[in-house]
Amino acid sequence: xxxxxxxxxxxxxxxxxxxxxxxxxxxxxxxxxxxxxxxxxxxxxxxxxxxxxxxxxxxxxxxxxxxxxxxxxxxxxxxxxxxxxxxxxxxxxxxxxxxxxxxxxxxxxxxxxxxxxxxxxxxxxxxxxxxxxxxxxxxxxxxxxxxxxxxxxxxxxxxxxxxxxxxxxx
Length: 170
What we know:
There is one protein chain. By secondary structure, this protein is an alpha+beta fold. The protein is built from seven helices and two strands; from the N terminus they run H-H-H-H-H-H-E-E-H. Strand 1 and strand 2 (137-149) form a beta hairpin.
């Protein structure tokens, strides 16, 4: 795992250098690729996989991006995080906000949808800048996740599936 982490660190460093050398923001790259700004940042952190359909758009947005890095971005990433990241003030405040509002958000999700959760896989996230009523800059975070209901674990359905798979599938 350590070798993989070192390799990921080197790739991320090279990707961030290519972005920095382009002079473009995540938002500008997002506009040119049709992705969200957060997803673009995830690609450059190797926390998301670049699809073959989007690769030409990224190539067009960053023509100086080396082909080997573009190919690396199309490989399934090792999604992980540094546990020390919580010490970074922005990340700490995001965590604090979710912990503070989380229970109320959960209750509203249950009230509006039923017993279930918001997916973090079928998920869109973006960061936007707006002016508040006082004229000061404000951060808008959008978490747009698919609702996933919990299922009742009915044993007859479970065992029927096992039997079907064992005896009826080639």
